[in-house]
Task: structure prediction
Amino acid sequence: MYYAAFRTSAHIARSSPEIFHGVSQDLLDYLKSKGVRIVADPERGVLETSDQMPTESIMRLAKLAGASGLLLVTVDRPAASWLKITVQSFDESGKLLWEENADKKSGLNGKSAPHDVGEKIKSKLAPHIGKEGLPVDSGGSGSSSSSSYPGNSAKASVLARNL
Result:
């Protein structure tokens, strides 16, 4: 699966880039720890962007990286929530396989939102692990190793703007 994270304009207006990158990295680390087969483009790394891109464009990047599908993570900050995370899984043809979301609406402040919402979305993703949309590595072929993640999202952001 090709992992891409999108930061909405509402999140940009009402939250920080550190929250976005932290949520994205935490979820990516969780998926890798569960053996989910994540394919990163060796040149671009993992795509983290605030530039709106058509799903078809991200699917093209996924195919170029040799992925069998796309895992699209959207990090949002709606007016009525501290944080909302949506995860969509698409097959190689671009068909939506499933979608899960979690948010935090209550509390005096949003300091615990990244942790709380992160834990909620992980619990919703757990039943999908090893099934359609979240395949796991068999025999640890290494495609989910941390060496596959150069972490250079700047190149990916530049590429995203050019698509």
In short: The chain has one domain: 2-148. Strands lie at 2-7, 47-49, 69-76, 83-91, 96-104. The helical segments are 9-14, 17-33, 55-64, 113-125, 153-162.
